[in-house]
Predict the 3D structure of the following.
Amino acid sequence: MERPQFVSFGEAFLFWLKLGFISFGGPAGQISIMHQELVERRRWISERRFLHALNYCMLLPGPEAQQLATYLGWLMHRTWGGILAGLLFVLPSLFLLILLSWIYMRFGHVSEVAGVLYGIKPAVTAIVLFAAHRIGSRALKNQVMWTFAALAFFAIFVLHTPFPLIVLLAAIVGAIGGRIAPQKFIVGGGHDAAKHGFGPALIDDDTPIPAHVRFSWAHLLKIVTSGLILWGAVVGYLCWQYGWNGTMTQMGWFFTKAALLTFGGAYAVLPYVYQGAVEHYHWLSAPQMIDGLALGETTPGPLIMIVTFVGFLGGWSQLPLGSEASLTTGVVAAIVATYFTFLPSFLFILAGGPLVESTHGNLKFTAPLSAITAAVVGVILNLAVFFAWHVFWPQGLAGHFDGISALIGACAMLALFRYKAGVIPVITVCGVAGLLFLFLKPWLAQQGIFL
């Protein structure tokens, strides 16, 4: 079997564009698509090199699938290749979510739309609970890790501890515990080394390191300086236009912090986004946050793209550009939220990639990151409880219990846990179920049922 020929920038562009439109299924599905296309079918990169890059991305805060695409694009076509791959992984979802956000704000109260969302909300609750189970099954390998998860749940659910503080405390205790009992803090990334090959690859195990991949202090300084300029210039402009306390400026600052705290994936940072966007800034309501997650689950791209929805609604409601420019403000705010969420991911890859390529070893989670991962499980469980609370008791615990929502949620859990159904089919079926209930509700009321 012959080694593939050089891949042109144009050919790579078409692939990354296609990936941006088909990247459903969350990080696992997106990584699987890249592995199938780039390792197995096209053989642009060997499996060991692919997993080596993935292990590094899993150590970073931020969406690992988008970072992996950026890393592979950079490996093949230098800095602009990485930027192109990372942008195309996000842009289709950005445009689609802006459109869906506008439809939601304009027609969200239309009965048919409300019916679909009614069915999707309990499905989202089941999906978040399933995420806690999936991450927990990998991270909670011993009693110490279970303790971290339990304490994190107690801290955020009972004490209302801010998510950044939970991350910081977990990292500190993990660093100390890693020295005392290192065997308790070894949590692998869940990706084993390659056990078989798919033929010679363009970037193979023995491929010489290209010049642009080699580490240099000059390159590192250039990337870091460029990143600071890209961040500081936009923040400075927003501060100049709207003041430091303006909605747009605060969005830039808030989502920068969120981008640096997404250890464990999007589900881990959602509680932090909720605490800030709903409770502190009041950019949107709790039910709207659940609706946003539902829309995020049904679109391609990283799940953390829910920040686009949050930004749009925040701009629409706060109206820093004036009451006559709701749509314009929503679009600008959505772009601001997305920009500051993903900028750090590009910098992590372009600055750290040469260091990673120079090692060619299997990177492991450090003890602090192991502790953070375990704590994240408790945080995600809190998010599931929060969603269940608002979906099954929409008027509060003293109000009416929504049995139909609970039934839809239970069926979604059964499909996810027992039959390993995909997220998109589960959401689709639950949305249809909610729409059917909307049409049946008047007849049921006539029969004296579910009044």
